[in-house]
Specification:
Chain lengths: 194, 325
Amino acid sequence: MRRMRSLRLKVNGDEVEVGAPDHWTLLEVLRYRLGLIGSKQGCDKGDCGACTVLVDGAPVLSCLTLAALAEGREVTTIEGLMPAHVARGGAGADPVQDAFDRCGALQCGFCQPGMMLSARALLDRTPFPTREEIQQALAGNLCRCTGYTQIFQAVEQVAAEAAGIEPAEPTWATYREAGQQPSPRARGVKGEDA
Amino acid sequence: MKSFELVRPRTLDQAVTELAAGGAMPLAGGQDLLGELKEHLADPERVVDLKRLEGLDGIDVDGEGNLTVGALVTLTALEEDPRVRERFPVLAEAAASVGSVQIRNAGTVGGNLCQRPRCWYYRTEDTPCLKRGGTECFSYAGKSKYNAILGGGPSYIVHPSDVAPALRVLDAELELRGPGGERRVPVADFFTLPSEGDVLKENVLEPGEIVTRVRVPALRGTWRSGYEKFRERDSYDWALASVAAALRVDAGRVVEARLCMGGVAPIPWRVAKAEQALLGPLRDESAWTAAGREMVRGAEPLEHNGYKVPLARAMIVKTLRRLTT
């Protein structure tokens, strides 16, 4: 009883038709039918957030979404972030991707696609979020490398640059661009202000 | 995940017929069901997608202030609805406390009420626990940190829903639809203790029956309500203990009180004597303490969950302090 279904999906602005069994998740179709391997298969049961994609602009877990239920919706994966930015008249990577890079917000990188999509969805709705709003928006994306501080700072960096101001606390980007070593505080070390 | 056939009915009648045919399970947001399927806890031949049904994804407030929430409303939509936030803060706060942003964006009100237990013995594929048709609740003599201190036996699960305690203090009713037609069941009668119902289930839903709507009667007078949840992990988690509270206040006095706990029992745990203890002056710490004492009266902790007794009492005091400040 391995029924195949023909699915019409809209992924990163492209209409695609793809065959998959009924029980396949959106994540499986993205990775193993469409070759979009940016969305990660981490825990595969809704704990880690590494499979996060945007469906109609809202972050959801593609590992807990049957592929058929994404029909008629707009799916955005990490691969679609930069093209969408360029289509809106921007140059290069999405500011979120750029800030994550410049702020040292990643190490192994496994959580980053999901993390950046959650951050993008937050900033689309709330362009100038508080630290608490950032923490809540990213609570469903687990990172085992960074300790989160640089990730929160990267989101703040995006908001600050959009407003044409300096972020409230210096991020790695600030130090790097000045050719200095990041302070312990910017690295998330408590009680050791430089 | 084992393969299944996805059935996508357009009408409630079709959905109920599909579900009643046996071997089928309903799918709404899928945030619990897909986990169950992946862990082989559920093994349906057909999965019936409810998301195409019309008229079950709306939030309505009628002229008298009665609230109706369709079972397919997402937790995000419930949490963000300005009318819910203003009139029924306990419900908005409970919805906001569920899972992560991603889970609330997909998870539905109906699914949250009908989600299965999180007990790790139940969730472990190879453990034939009582809830899976076995003969023993392994938490009783095993790792019981997250299990029930009240109302347990023969199964010691806690009900994982945050929305349920909030609906319980709002005296809500659930609209159910099954092969036998439509019926309404108060939330008070929806959830079943393992000792009094089928131990394989957590509620009164018959085979093929689903929750279609939640009906919350208007609150008359001046009410203060809220939901507090204690989690082991701050980012997102199920409750170790949670409190839904609603107080009707008149001339500086509490004239009606409703109090229900989550995370401590197999059903949302509401105790009339705890509520009575709160009647009187608005800010009365001794009344909060007394309410906490009544709420956990008769508690029988297992080996690793004794901490839930003082936690539950502290959570009640914390909730009441916030609501009366």
